[in-house]
Amino acid sequence: MANVTTRTARSSALIGALVVGALLLVGAVIGAIPRLTGILGDVWNGRADLLTGRVPQVPVDGTIPDVPAGVDYAGVLISADAPLVLSRTLQVIAASLDSLLLIGAGLLVVLLALRMLQSRPFAKLLAWGLGGVSVLAVAASTIAPQLEAWAVDVAVRELGYAVYDSSHDGSFKADGPDVIALSLWDPLWVLDRIDPALLLIGIALGTLGLLTAHGVRLQRDTDGLV
Description:
5 helices; three-stranded antiparallel β-sheet; 3 strands; 226 residues; mainly alpha; 65% helix; elongated
């Protein structure tokens, strides 16, 4: 009786995992379609850092500007209906990495649940699956933000906005002109754009994948000695 109860609880847990994995997989696929098509066919949007001498920027001498409380510049949102083929392509690749991560995670849960329900070996699938999801997580945390920054860089230049470069004298006046700061290749900004939480999750999943693969080999070697 206890064995029957245990098997029922195990099957219920696996079916629940299968449902959750399937929902994650389907949701990721359905969510990716409008997101990617929107980037390609809708108005292009990108966020950039704005350098300006206008209030409410804090003056160099540290005094508080005479503006309503809580008002500041967090950057500038650029929207354009221009083709911007390269920028849109870069944004699609960046968004695809995020979507592929969710799709891969959902697919792995579904496959593992099906294997375990069928009482089939799953350790090798788990090792490879964790490795694949790990690679996607690391790529989404490190590469995707740089592609997004690259897309903004290309769009700003193609649209003809003034940018902060070596030709700028570094002075700003209250009546302008403003410039856009492009920090794509600045090492500090490259590191700042990385998502540390997602990166650590990717590294942890990769480590678990390696440990699982090692365990599979160890088990195979042990079975060969029996």
